[in-house]
Amino acid sequence: MYLNCHSFHSLRYGTLSLETLVARARALDIAALALTDINTVTGIYDFTRACLKAGIKPIVGMEIRNDDRLLYIGLAKKQSGIGELCRLLTARNCDGIALPTIAPDFAEVTVIYPLPNVPPELKAHEYVGVRPSEVNLLIRPEWKRYLERMLILSPVTISNKTEHNLHRILRAIDRNVILSRLEPQDVCAIGETMEPVDKLLEVYRDYPQLIANTVMVMEGCNFEFDFTTPKNKKYYTDSRQGDATFLTGLARAGLKKRYGENHVAARERMEKELKVIDELGFSGYFLITWDIIRYSNSMGFMHIGRGSGANSIIAYCLGITDICPLELDLYFERFLNLNRKTPPDFDIDWSWQDRDTILEYIFDRYGRDHVAFCGTNVEFKYRSIFREVGKVFGLPKEELDALATQSVDMHDDSAVVKLVHKYGRMLEKYPNQRSMHSCGILISEEPITDYSALEMPPKGFPIVQFDMHVAEEIGLEKFDILSQRGIGSINDAAKLIRKNRGIQVDIRDTALSKNEARCNEFLSRGQTIGCFYIESPAMRGLLRRLKCADYPTLVAASSIIRPGVAQSGMMKEYIFRHNCPDSFEYFHEVFEEHLGDTYGIMVYQEDVIKIAMHFGGLSAADGDVLRRAMSGKGRSLAALQRVKDNFFASCAAIGHPEGLSREVYRQIESFAGYSFCKAHSASYAVESYQSLYLKVHYPIEFMVAVINNQGGFYRTEVYVHEARMSGARVTTPCVNNSDYETTVDGDEVFLGFMHLQSLESRLARLIPEERAQHGAFCSLEDFIQRIPIGIEGVQILIFIGAFRFTGKSKNELLVQARLLLVNFRPQDRNLMLIREPAKEYKLPVLERSAFEDAFDEIELLSFPVSCSPFDLLQTRYRGDVMARDLTAHHKRQVKMLAYLISRKHVPTKRGTMFFGTWIDVNGDYFDTAHFPDSLQHSPFKGGGCYLLLGTVEVDYHFPTLTIHKMAKLPFIPDPRYAHDKKHAFDVHRQIREDVSMTDRAPYPQEHEIGLPRRKMGG
């Protein structure tokens, strides 16, 4: 009898999860139930599965609303009815077509109108819904003629009164008002709960026709969905056989190009893969991926292919990846096995500058009716919950900021804050809004609106209303089309090298960079700032601990830095075994045979499969279930438990001692996710090497490219420092030399106008465009006549030194600018056909401090360019020990003076700790550890220079300074405010630091790992 149920997928309206809704219906012995969320089908597939599992007939549809006005409810008679509703909503969401007040003439949808919106005439599939509170209205004459077409409409939105309060809070959040400002029409009735059916029927006892109509409608709705068949585009050609033939031809041509004519192992692997791909029906998936890459190559774009599909020699031969599976012994079963129901993952990266072009091609090539992004539900998060809920209770901004930024135990204990906590906890994990998946593209065989309405987020590509997990469950596999700034840096660096040096670097030739001698030197020393994936402090520390000096070690490092491996202690054990290969035994021969290249340690996802198969005797399919569960992709705990039971039973049958089997499974469990498959690591390592090659051989151009791509672990200042350390002469923006982006000429680097935070973006782009069209600016007056700019913009450019070509001081230029602009008429700017020579003004010479420029730069760029931060210190002391000498001071206490680059927050049982990254006066980097006890009396106090006292701990070639005491050192007063002491230290607060957060505990210590280093019985 419940034809109008809302879940929390009716965003900021419903309060019930799908599980709660179905469980409530089951508890009340309800035989059929309808989910009709507001303007969405997000939950219908999970709802259908839950209902079938509970023995309830699922009915699905949609409640159509225009803003908050209920127009009608549509119930799908069968699957095609959902398509009709989805297309109606898609027209509104994507094309701006208004929702019709009267429902269109649906073929497979039953329509229910609420009393306030009944049309004069009803079609055969249309009814009028009567709420329990409206039954008394039926005695009125105007409703008599509709009685034969009426049915029960008892909406379900909440469970109880408390949830009604939560519903009101959600509505206030949605309306952006405080609770007291909600209108009656904004909220549901307090009675919109699910009651026993007999209690509901009692309300309608005088109108048996309504009950009969309701039963008839429910019987007529038969939504049956086949969850087992793939819904992706089936074929690239016109048939399965055509796809298989075409793929085989491409693979053979690629094999010849990659391996030559007579590579037996490569040919055998190719034929084996082709057979499995065809049997699984994945040829079309491979060909569509190849087609996207083919287009990318035709446009001259660079891409990186990764994911489990990179284990495939077919992918390598087709040019989807640049990873040779034979070179790295990549595991075929990780990529495909005959029990696998879904295609392998292909994660394809492009430069952030090129990705939209690729997306436009996919939408055009495969049809906009068949392509969409996956959606994703953005949930209410811890900090945003307190802010959102506090706002509807009317708390002022200062209190909202405190709630959002302080831990719960520091919040006030007022009655209002207690209510914020109460309802905030209820809202946790509720969906708040729908957004676009970062990279997942769906390409369907049938129109995609058969399965979902589409929405158009601000980024301009349509999304389906469900997430990637639901997509996979209903048979739609995503293509991962990603963007990253690392590829942009590599691309742009190659262009800058060609422009600045006349050298053509074929950076796509991976043989050029892999295992190049000088690159390996930089790698082993952790000199990788700016390089994709290997520039973070943690990664540079790992490279130094491993003395990583070759490609295979870098591949391993790319995976062992991942949380699953690192948190399990496997990373620490790997470092030990890598540095001390004679100090351990393999505790079982299977680990030596199959994990010998990683010292018997599980580093990659496919290692789980290897051990499950070769030690535990499981099938490849069960090994993959285990691997998927451990990587967080398996959603079935029951399947994992079955495989676990099989593992121990199989180990016992093989004859392994129970203790040994438990130790192996403990390692598998501790490995638990967030690791890479080997091919994925190898793909990352290739890109890391490409960027490292450019950094080593063309450091200035490479660092300029990194600066321009605004990507990486650090702020711009750090990359400017790296450029300077590489021999660049870095200068502030200049109107005659700088562009919007940073440029390089020889070894001189001109920062771009984009870095001037307070300069309008319009002006930042116009200045180089005007100069390119009409030549260099010859004076300040010439500039003002040609560029539509006010005094504020001119002052910014003067203060940053953009008119230094005039030879005049900033003080002179400021006076001249004011004199020029006081009587300047903008309308004359374009009328002056012949420019008059600039007038000269005789001004008194005004003295300037040598450091005024540095403080101008800090104010406008957030860092000094004309000098080092160390030059601005009040003290001349520079520390007793330099970073380059730290390894010689193991276990000694040292005093250092350093400039703060970044710090990482790490929670521990004893409180917060930080890891810091610094540079010394020579510009060299080093790292520090700050434990809770030292932070109590020596906290961080923002960006700047600090005096550090600590003990040096050298861990496998990598020194860390454990801090006992530290103090931030004062810079000189701002000389620009020599006569205004009140503001003499204002600008100092603009000196920045990078702060990153993690919720993960510190890596375990050696004694906590417990990995056997001696052979175990069996």
TrEMBL record:
Transmembrane segments: none annotated. Signal peptide: none annotated. Residues 1-68 form the Polymerase/histidinol phosphatase N-terminal domain. The keyword Ribosomal protein does not apply. Its EC number is 2.7.7.7. It comes from the Bacteria. InterPro entries: DNA_pol3_alpha_NTPase_dom, DNA_pol3_finger, DnaE2/DnaE/PolC, DNAPol_HHH, PHP_dom, Pol/His_phosphatase_N, Pol/histidinol_Pase-like. The keyword Transferase applies. It is an enzyme of class 2 (transferase). It catalyses: DNA(n) + a 2'-deoxyribonucleoside 5'-triphosphate = DNA(n+1) + diphosphate. Keywords: DNA replication, DNA-directed DNA polymerase, Nucleotidyltransferase, Transferase. PANTHER family: DNA POLYMERASE III SUBUNIT ALPHA. This is DNA-directed DNA polymerase. It comes from Sphingobacterium pedocola.
